[in-house]
Every structure is written in C-alpha cells, then in structure tokens.
Design brief:
Elements lengths: L1 H15 L23 H10 L6 E5 L2 H8 L11 E8 L3 E10 L2 E11 L6 H12 L4 E3 L2 E5 L12 E5 L14 E4 L1 H19 L7
Length: 209
C-alpha cells in the first residue's frame, strides 16, 4: 500500500505540479511545463528538469526544405535537419511532442502524455487534472475537453486539451495518450506559410496541401 501511494504521488507531482486552482486559456496550458509553440531546446530543457535524460528526437524537413519540396525541388531525407518529434519517458509514463516547421524554427504543435504503469489511482489523477486546468468545457463520458471541443481532432481549429479517463474504451485499443494538448491552427498557419513562400519562389500559385 505504501509503495502504491508513493508511485501515485510521483506521477501526479511530475505531471501536474504546480497546480493553479483557476483554469487559464488553453494557450497557456502546459504538460510537464511544456507548452504549445515552444522550441525543441525549450522542450529538452523542461524534460531534463523533470528527470528524463533519454530523449529520442526524430528529424524532418525544415521550413526551407519544405519550401524547396513544395517548389518541386529534390530534398533527400538524410539531409533533414529539423525536429519532427521528441519522445521520452520511463516505466510509468511516456511523452511524445510533435512539431511544425516555421520560419523561426520548429515549434510544438501537440503534446501527448500517456500513463503506462500500474498503480495509478484514476480518481486521484482526475482530481489533479481538475485542480490544474479547471472544469472542462465539455464532458462526453470519460472524455473531457477544454478549448476547441469538436468531437474529432480533424474538426478542431484551435487549441484544445483532451483528457481521456478510460482510453481502453476506444475500439479496445489504447490511443496515443490519456492527456493531449494541441493546436491544429499552428500546423495550418505553418502550411500556409510554406505554400506562400513556395509560390513566391516559383512565381506561380501552388496548391496548399
């Protein structure tokens, strides 16, 4: 029983501390201190501050390389230089951070946190979520939403936080995370900027996809 309590405390403190009593705008939310639009260096700094030293970074094309590719120029995958995702965790929790590419560099567009260990007290975890983020804007059973509350991710246009108390309920498989913070508008804006830069580069209008 004592070991169980220590494990629960370690997870909740790592994820939710400090915990303000009043929810802020979703733009100001964080998971493990990681916020939307942060750079890879900022993410790494916060991850290491929480004790995560084994950080895997996947690379992808930079903004300039995306513009070149959109302009029908050849870019080799081995030449990709920008962070596409970062992943770190331990035997209790896994975090995946995804980036979009802007002229200013890679920026966080989504943070996905998953509980993978045993001994997590779901009621206590729910209390910690509510204490940090406030009451959800919408609740669909065990799925709680803040910000953009469209049912499907593809329908969301603005920042959102999604907390799934029972991820195993979705087609019997565990989804990406129990707690997800994201903003689809960051990707939409980045894609538009790439398309615009490619059009200026080639002197012709290119499709934005």
């Amino acid at each position: 029983m004592k070991r169980h309590a220590v494990l629960v405390l370690a997870i909740t403190v790592g994820l939710f501390s400090p915990a303000p009593l009043v929810a802020a705008d979703v733009d100001g939310f964080d998971i493990l201190g990681i916020q939307l639009a942060m750079s890879p260096d900022e993410v790494e700094t916060r991850a290491r501050a929480k004790g995560f030293d084994d950080i895997v970074t996947g690379t992808g094309p930079s903004f300039e390389q995306l513009v070149a590719m959109r302009s029908r120029e050849r870019v080799l995958s081995q030449d990709f230089v920008s962070a596409r995702f970062m992943k770190f965790g331990n035997d209790r929790e896994v975090v995946e951070v995804f980036f979009v590419q802007t002229q200013a560099g890679s920026q966080v567009s989504q943070i996905a946190y998953r509980f993978v260990g045993s001994g997590v007290n779901l009621d206590q975890m729910t209390y910690q979520v509510l204490e940090k983020y406030g009451q959800p804007d919408l609740q669909r059973g065990d799925q709680w939403m803040w910000g953009d509350t469209a049912e499907y991710v593809q329908q969301r246009k603005g920042p959102y936080l999604e907390f799934d108390r029972d991820p195993m309920r979705i087609f019997g498989r565990q989804p990406l995370s129990n707690l997800t913070l994201g903003d689809p508008s960051l990707k939409a804006t980045a894609d538009d900027a790439v398309a615009q830069a490619a059009s200026e580069r080639t002197g012709r209008e290119l499709p934005r996809f």
